[in-house]
Amino acid sequence: MHCPIFVNNGKKSLATTTVKRNGLVGLKDGSKNDGTVRMKRQIGLIGGIAMIIGTMIGSGIFISPTGVFQRVDGSVGVSLVVWIACGLLSTLTAVTYIELGTVVPRSGGEHAYFMAAFAPLHQFWGEIPAFLFAFMTVTLLKPSALAILSLSFGEYTILPILNGLGTCENWKKNSKDYEFGHKLLAIVCALFVATINIYSAKLSARVQIVFTVAKLIACALVIGIGLYNLSIGEFGSLPNSFDMSENTSYSSVALAFYSGLWSYDGWNNLNYLTEELIDPNRNLPLAIFIGIPLVTILYTFMNISYFTVLSKVELMTKEPVGIRLGDRMLGTLSFIIPVLVALSVYGTANGSQYTAGRISYVAARDGHLVDVLSYVHIKRLTPSVAILLNVDVNSYCLHFFQ
Hints:
This protein has 14 helices and 4 strands. By secondary structure, the protein is mainly alpha-helical. Strands 1-4 form a two-stranded antiparallel sheet. It has a two-stranded antiparallel sheet with strand order 2-3. The longest helix is centred in the middle third of the chain and has 37 residues.
């Protein structure tokens, strides 16, 4: 007997019925015996926290401190205030997503919320905001984000190898072999992430937990170096923290938020897979209230560690502060930092790919993208076609990215 590999859920056909709650259109699960193939609820609280922390902590905290520090004209105190304020802003914004995610318990994040808010207003124009969001996210934002993460993985993976071989910086900048190896590792990263996400959603969630632990180890290592320096009386750039340049202005502080918020990106990713979250009314708020404040605390103490080791002049340079800190404090073990950063970036790529597939799947299910993207593997229960689309567009981006 022939059994199809993929099953089309069809337009708005997740075996759900429309209900109204507080004036918004939400969805209620239909019968489990209706024969509809859907993705399972298999992400618990730990998996939800790992999804938030794992997508927020990437390479940004090892690079962005320089951008923030430059824009506040070398003021250590103002830089720390910006990092804390970025965390507070992310947390407050996430509170609104908690309400949206519980009132509109659908996967797809903003796409689902635009549909709930505007689709009932007009049969055609009401769905335009959701369509535009889905189109931009599927064709540009998610694939380019995966491409950047994959390239970062390639860079930090090959860096300790080249340093061990004593390769000079000029060769790395000008060699076509370096560029080829860099992009080859990026492609391998993207394909490996896609393979795991296609094979099993549960396996992908477990991989996310494992790499989140690796991220926390990297953060703990950096923080531990800072605590050690403080314990022996090495305060680095911390004295006179709030000394400010005459050139510092409100506009420069505002620009510093751009660099800081980039490192906090990913706080909303759990809302893209609400339908796969076990007891979302409980676990969505808990995961957000645990994950984002924890990241804020880690980022703050990591910045303090950077300030205890590096001078203000060193913090202004383009070299990633995390790599410079490792070179200064770990000696022959300095390769540990780029390796941990590579693992951290891979975890972020895995979380990004996981959510990208769900956005394409939900948009196609609602009739905003081609139907084939709403197909679910009948055995593995993963949106395989949607995931493959993201990888394909990502490969196109890698061809043009330097």
